[in-house]
Model the fold of this input.
Amino acid sequence: MGSKRSLLLDWAESGRIPRNRIDRALSVSGLYPDSQSWRRFIDRLLLWSGILALAFSVIFFLAYNWDAMGRFAKFALVECLIVAALAGYWKLGRDDIKGRVALMLAAILLGALLALFGQTYQTGADPWQLFAGWALLILPWVLVGRFPALWVVWLALINLSLLLFFSVFPKIWGLLFSAEIQLYLTLAVNTLALAIWETRARHSTWLDQRWATRLLAVAGGFAVTLLMTQTIFDWQDISIVASIVYPLWIGGLYYVYRYQIQDLFMLAGGCLSMIVIVTSLLTRALLEDGDPIGFLLIALAVIGMSAAAGIWLKHINREFAS
Amino acid sequence: MTDKAESLWKKLQLAGVLEGTVMPKPETGSPWYVRLILGVSGWIAALFLLGFVALGMEFILDSSTASITLGIGGLVAASAIFHRTLNDFYEQFGLALSFTGQALIMFGLVEWMGWEGSTPWWQIAALQLLVTAVMPNFMQRLVAGYLATMALSVALTLHGGPFIVLVLATVFVVLVWLNEFHLTGWRAPLRPMGYGVTLALVQLNGPYRIDQSLILFADHTDDFEMVLPLWAGNAATGLLLVALVGFLISRRGSGWPLQQRLTTLAATAVLALTSLEAPGIATGFTILLLGFASSNRVLNGLGIIVLLFYISAYYYNLQDTLLVKSGILAATGSVLLLARWIVLRWAFPQEMQSHE
Done:
């Protein structure tokens, strides 16, 4: 649909489609959705937004910690809603969009239940334990549900747990878990998830969701780029492992998404990462003395690199399209 | 791509909507994320260029005249580069030069007039509108649209008119995206501006709303007075949603029976009532509808982000307690599900199948 839009835009801009015939051209081309498509869109939009609004209303309610309502009533409210959501999923099945929405609702409300538990009994649990427990408890539903959005939620909980864990326990057994190690763990989790996802997607069409894999790649790419940048600026204080990991990660990204899966978004992200790294290297090399010419040279280098990236990506895009 | 283009060209030829018989060679344009990377790189380059000016030519920043003059020179040079449409390197250079020129002009203006009240924000907005007119570059116009909207929002908030820009920006994006394919010739700059203003709408409904912070701050000063109540802005966004649906039905639903049209409008009106307490939902739905109506996935994505950002911002909103907000969300959720039932039962009375 993206290419059809751009073709129609080009032809409209160049006058191949006269202004007074544009609407007819858009109808004939199928760019405008038909009645069935509108029905499906309205169905899903109102269903998702309605259910999520209700889920968030429960979360806001519990966060308020209303004294007028007893603890058992609060637990009963959340637990009944979870049971009702699961019953809905069981009745409707995972192939029905309403079933999937019900499963997502149950997963969200389970987190609210855990928060309520911590709030009511003042267990002293750390926030990372809430998110880790939440991820653990919904894992069976995530496995059974075969629902990409739920998998992404689950991975987000894992990432959040890791982040919060290290904010509480920077040291374990006397070993200091620096920010560097946290980034390596984030990189490892997301890269592993990406690799497994892409591999399984070849056999399971329900996993073939580019938006989900792109999110994982962004998370991993962010971590590895930050690691490499830290290595460039603090090479005396941290290990240089990133200088081996980074080229491997970028090389792997290039090979897989240029030749195996063909995803221009991933290659574009790789280009941006490399621009950031080279800019960091130049900054380190040329700006140590604060020489203003260094700024000019780096500016020109960034312009050159981004232009080169743009030309290369356009070339790859043509290659993928042909 | 060529096969798809030929197939589409033949279809349109048969329908008699084309001018000319020879299909032009299809260009493979850049997807939005490639343009984003080029835009971000342009910003990074501009920061280093500014660093060069700040350290190497300090006398320029010390003098408002020199700063403004050099800034204007940068803009003129950038405009010349864009008009000549040389290669990608020059285009990126032009982008960096344009951003740097604008920053220098603002430095100069602030050095000259100071940073007080709403004046600098009006200046930023005016500069961005000028840039949109003279710079034939998609990314530059997108950024200008975004900055102009944010600057106007702050300026009007300081004058007691928060949400005016939010409503006007929503009107703008509705007009642009409903007429996207008609934006040719002198109207062409409106398309990238449309993306910029839509991005601004995402932020204006999100947790990092500058104008919201300003209301809290300005409310403590003696001469601050709201010229428009908040509910007026909320009602306006709801009405816009209803107007959009009405327009889409009239334009695209020519075969729809009257019952279908009235039911859809009524359901939208009920939904719009929720915007009185939760205006971000109406804005998010507006963008989503605009995106779906023209198969624009970027708008679809931005609409979803508006809704998610709004919920996040709503949580931290201090105007109501969490209990009240919980009630509002519960009511909103119920209304949305009710609207769904009404629309599917009466507007699209077919067997309900929601399979993938």
User: Anything to note?
Assistant: Chain A touches chain B through 91 residues (CB under 8 Å).
